[in-house]
Amino acid sequence: MALQGPFVVIADSPAPDIAEALRAAGAYPVIETGWADARSAMREIEPEAVVLADACADKPRVDTVMTALAAQRGRAGALYMPVIARIRDDAASPIPDVLAIAASAPRERFLRRVGAATRLRTLHGTVLRRMKTLTSHGEQVPELAASDPLDEATVLIAGRGRTYPALSVAVGERVGLVGALSVESAARALNVRDINGMVIGDGFSPRVVEALLTVLAEDLRFRDLPVIVLGSHPALVEPFSAHLPNLERISEGPKLLVERFLPYVRAHAFGARLKRMLKSLDAKGMIDPDTGLLGHEAFWRDLNRAVGDAEKRGVGLSIARFSFNGNDRRVGLDAARLIGRLLRQVDFACREADNSIFAVFTETDLRAAHVVARRIASILKNTMLAPDRKGGRIDAAVTLATLKPTDSVDSLIARVVGEVAAGETARQI
Fold first, then answer.
1. Cα separations (Å) of 34 from 10, 154, 390?
2. Which spans in 141-295 are helix H?
3. Of 333, 326, 390, which Cα lies nearest the Cα of 173?
4. What residue ranges define each of the domains in the chain, with the CATH number in brackets?
5. What Rg do the C-alpha atoms of the chain give, in angstroms?
6. Mind listing the pLDDT tens digit for each residue in 155-170?
7. SS3 at position 338
């Protein structure tokens, strides 16, 4: 993709290959500076991205650059500013939480990686402008979450070799984890879950890895997905890097993998957050940007309308309440986003303050609603992430009620939450 705007390249040794590649891709101006002068260079302009073209062994100068980057990112209303670091295959990044790429990576792969990072900056700018415009018109807009996107990120690990346990521990300590011992399980997880990064471990043949990468490369949903291929299969990365710019191969152990991988996972989770926010803004706040489900006001308005329509037309309407043990926010978000993917086009849902979820099945009698709710409950129980990433079991309780001729919205909700007189209990799944 064509690059636009100013870029800062930090290197004590000349890096003409990086500067020329950026200029050829459309970046302007490209400011080359040493580590000692990087702070003043970034103060003069607001770069689209910063490229660390070489490492720096001088800790005070590194700390100065880290401080400058933190100040740039911490300004009110500041756009996301990616920092891409070229490093040796076996080296750690000079600055933590940057997007690392091997110094030996071909020029085209480097540019595609930079392009993917600046796409996220562009998306962030679009969301901020839309929020500002709606606010200026008197609209109430939801706030963009300020928490670390890594707190709600999910990584898929596919593999069944000797490194799988160590990988699972190293990754699972930092983010939500979904494990897959086969490519079929990995494909199901990619289709049903919001995945923010994928690690392909050992235990698969080159043909299987190639087939998996082919599926990812052919689906636009996974264009910016961070994908790590661990260990062997060095020849498999380059053919797919054109369609998977954040595809990388790492031959080292889990510690280095986590250090290099998680900044990409954080960026992808931030992008997913921005897309949900943009969807919410387009819907004028009717959609909750945290879950992608309806907001409370929109849900109750639509429920009243659906009940009135069902009574007028004489069709069925059922409602299910999904509740979970404990009150963990991560569990509630995970369940809500899963349910959002599983609902039919004619259904709608919202998440309550206690993390329970109401799902309304329109034009659906109790028997059909039972089938739908049972399928959703089964998927939730088998795929939801446990709280605190400890691997415990999630208990999803489901209560189902259907609209009766004498019902109002209040009485229907009372039955589904259990606040009813004897003999009027709703069906539990």
1. 5, 37, 45
2. 164-172, 183-192, 206-218, 254-282
3. 390
4. 7-141 (3.40.50.2300), 149-264 (3.40.50.2300), 296-428 (3.30.70.270)
5. 24
6. 999 988 788 888 888 8
7. helix
